[in-house]
Amino acid sequence: MQPLKQLVFGALLVLTLLVIESSSKAHKRFSDVSPRGDSYNTRNYGRPFHGGNNRRYHARLQDWSPDTNNWIEKMYPVWKARDARWKTCWKGGRVMVHLTSDSPALVGSNITFVASLQFPRCQKEDENGNIVYNGACSGDSGQSGNVYNSTSWTEDDNEDYDRGDITCNSFPDGRPFPHHSDHRHRQFVYIFFTNGQYYQKSGRSFTTITMNTTNMTLGNQEMDVVVYHRRGKKCVPIANASTLYTITDQIPFTVNISQKNNRNASQHRFIRDMPILFAVHLHDPSNYLKDANISYRWNFSDGTGLFVSGSSLANHTYTELGNFSAMLTIEAVLPIPAPCGPVTPTPPITTEKTTILPTTRIPATTNTSVTTKAGSSSEESSRESSESGEGDLEEKEAPAECLLHRYGYFNTVLTVVDGILDIDVLPMTRIGGVTSAQSDSVVEFVVTCEGSIPTEVCTVILDSSCKELQSEACDSIPVMDQCRVTVQRTFDQPGIYCVNVSLLDEASLALTSTMVSVGEGTPRAATLEIVLIFGAFLLLLVFLGVLFLQRRFKTYTPVDGNVQRSERFNEGTNVYFNRVKASLFSRTEEKNPLLKDKAGVI
C-alpha cells in the first residue's frame, strides 16, 4: 500500500510540474524576451544591468508599460541566440539595427533614441516603404524589383514558424496598431526595453523615441531594442541591439580651448602673452535649459581672481610661465512649477576676489538649491535666506514658482610656455631676373617676428589665385640673437605668386602671406612707361583741339565798301586767335608790308 501511495504522489508531482511549465510557456512575459534575458543575448555586453529584481524600484516612465505584461509568442516568436533561423529570416543576408542616443541627459530633460536598420548589400527602402534591390549597386547580380512589398500581406514563403491562425495586426501585448495615414507602409515593429519597462512602436526603417528623465535613477542605464518584420500572419524577428545612456544631475557640457599660433593646443600647452579662447558648449538637445538663467564662473589660478559672466565665451592671457589650473563652474537657475522638487547640493563658497564682467548678474549663495518665488525675483528670495542664516528657505503658502539650481564643473591644467607672437615680411629683394639666357629668378624675403626665436622657416608658393600649389620648402634656422630670418626662393617663370611664410618652434607656429611679382621689368619702370604714354596722348588731344578751333573761327574779309562794319565784328576774334597761335606754335612769321592792322580800301 505504501509503495502505491508513493507512486501516485510522484505522478501528481510530475503532472504539476508539467502544468506549471506549460503555463509558463503559454504566458511568456516581456521580461523573458528582453535582450537582457537569455532569448536575445547574442553578445557578451560586459556591462552592469540595472534590472533584475530591482526593476520595480524604478519610477514609471510616461507611456511605458511594465515588462511583467504577457507576451503573445504565437504572433511574435522568440528565438534563442544560436537559432539557425536568424540566418534565413531575411532575403540576401542579415539585417542590422543601430541604436544611438543623445546621452548624457540632465535629469528632468528629454532623451532621444534613434533606431535605424541596415539592410544587406544592394537593398534599400523606397519612398513607399518597400524594400527593393538597388539597381545602381556595383557588382549587382542583376536582381531587381521588390525584396519585400510593404502592402502585400499574403507573402508566406517560409513555413518554418508556428504561426497559427493569428494575423500580425497588433503589438506583442495585444494592443492594436495605431491607424496612421501610412500604417500599411510601416512594416517594422520596434520594442524598446529599459528599467523593467517597455515601449512598442511601428515604423519604417528609421524610427525615434523620446523619453523624459524626471525622477529617473542617476547613472548609466541600458536601452535595448528588438525589431520584428510584419509578414501577413506572422511577425518575424530580424535584429536586436543595445546601447548605454547616462542620466546625471550635473549640467553636461564641453569646453574647447584654442589659441592663435599654437601648435600644441591638444596637449594643453599654450603661449605666454597671447589670449586663450575658452568656448563652452552646453549639451542640451531637448532645450531643457532654454528658460534658465545661466552664469559662468572662471578661475584661472594666476592671481587674477574670479571672473563671472553670462557669456559662454571667455578670453584670458597668461603673463607668466608655468602650470595653471583653469576651473569653471556653471550655474543654471530654472523656473519650475510648485511644489518645489528635490534639493541638490550647492557648490562650495569661494573666498577669492570676484571680477564682474559687463551685463553679469551674480546670484547670492544659499544653502539650498531650490528657492521659492512668489512675486519677487530669485535674487531677492535667495538673499533673504542667506542673510537670515537659515538652512532652508521658508515656503510661501501658495508659491507661484520655484527655482531649481543645477551646476556643472570643469577643471584642467594648462602649461604656459614662450612662443612666436607675431610675424612680418619686409619688402622683397630680387637677386636675379628672368631673361632669355637665365630662366630662374631668385627672390629674397626678410622675415621678422616677435617672441621666441624660431627654429624652422617654411614657404608655400601658390599661383596668383592662392589655390594651386607651385612649390613648398622648409629650412632650419641657425641659432641667432634676434628674430630676423632671410629666405631665398627661386621662381622659374615670370608672373604673380602668392607666398605663405611660416615660422616654427617647439610650441608655436606663426603664419603670414604676401604677393610677389616676378618678371623682366620692375613695377617702377612699368608705372613710368604708363605715365609717359598717357602724357603724349593728352598733348595730341590739345593740339587737335586748337587746330579745330582755329579753322572754325577764321573768316574771310571781302574788299568792298562795307569793310568798316565787318571790321568791328572780326577784329577782336582775329587778334585773340593770332596770339594763341603765336604762343603755342612759335615760328618766324613773314612780315608782309601789305598786311596792316586796319583794313582799308585800295
Structural class: alpha+beta
Which CATH C-level class of the largest domain is it? Mainly Beta
CATH superfamily of the largest domain: Macroglobulin (MG2) domain
Rg calc: 45 Å
Main β-sheet description: 7 strands, mixed
Mean pLDDT: 74
CATH domain topology of the largest domain: Immunoglobulin-like
Q: Helices, strands, pairings?
A:
Layout: H1 2-26, H2 30-33, E1 65-66, E2 96-101, E3 105-106, E4 110-118, E5 123-125, E6 131-133, E7 146-148, E8 188-194, E9 197-203, E10 206-212, E11 219-231, E12 234-248, E13 253-259, E14 269-271, E15 276-282, E16 293-299, E17 306-309, E18 313-316, E19 322-336, E20 354-356, E21 370-373, H3 378-388, E22 401-417, E23 420-425, E24 429-430, E25 441-451, E26 456-462, E27 469-476, E28 484-491, E29 495-504, E30 509-518, H4 523-553, H5 563-584
Parallel strand pairs: 3-12, 14-22, 17-20
Antiparallel strand pairs: 1-9, 2-4, 4-10, 5-6, 6-7, 8-9, 8-11, 11-12, 13-15, 15-18, 16-17, 16-19, 19-22, 21-22, 23-25, 24-25, 25-28, 26-27, 26-29, 29-30
